[in-house]
Amino acid sequence: MEGENGVKLHGMWASTYSKRVELALRLKGVPYEYIEEDLSNKSQQLLEYNPVHKKVPVLVHNGKPIVESYVILEYIDERAKVRFWASYIQQQATKSQPQNFIKTKSNGQEDVSI
Ligand SMILES: N[C@@H](CCC(=O)N[C@@H](CS)C(=O)NCC(=O)O)C(=O)O
Predict the structure, then answer these.
(1) Which of 5, 46, 48, 65 is most buried as measured by Cβ atoms within 10 A of its Cβ?
(2) Between these two residues, 107 and 77, which has the higher pLDDT value?
(3) Where in the numbering of this chain does the GST N-terminal domain appear (predicted)?
């Protein structure tokens, strides 16, 4: 079975649908493994991941397949937003280390507010 982790793209070199997904992954800086499909002899994985249309592109994220290029683009965009805010919150949390909130009282004791 295909690995559960990471991002894999089943595509075909001449497919503009595949190309737009590849472009989005690159623009967002998402590392991925590319699997070239022979559309005259489709892989078993492609048929399992996209049993209705049996078409590329198929994005597989942590073992979960996503089909239809526009759906995939939306998914990539949403994930990028989540990663942006997670990183922003992490940066803000790092700036607000507890030592920034330690005040020395007049009696010499430290008052910590987090
Ligand atoms: N609506 C689909 C279209 C995908 C599509 O037409 N893919 C073609 C390659 S460009 C394909 O896999 N064709 C194989 C077939 O029809 O058997 C999308 O946006 O992802």
Answers:
(1) 46
(2) 77
(3) 5-84
Determine the distance from the C-alpha atom of residue 81 to the mean position of all C-alpha atoms in its chain, rounded to a whole number.
9
DSSP structure string for 30-59: ---EEEE--TTS--HHHHHHSTTT--S-EE
From the CB of 22, is ligand 1 less than 6 Å away?
A: no
Q: For the chain, what percent of residues have pLDDT higher than 70? A: 82
Ligand 1 centroid distance, CA of 54 (Å): 8
Q: With respect to residue 12, please indicate whether it lies within any of the assigned structural domains.
A: yes
Kindly report whether the global pTM for this prediction surpasses the value 0.90. no
Please give the Cα distance from 46 to 41 (Å, whole number). Answer: 10
Structural domain of residue 17, as residue ranges?
A: 7-96
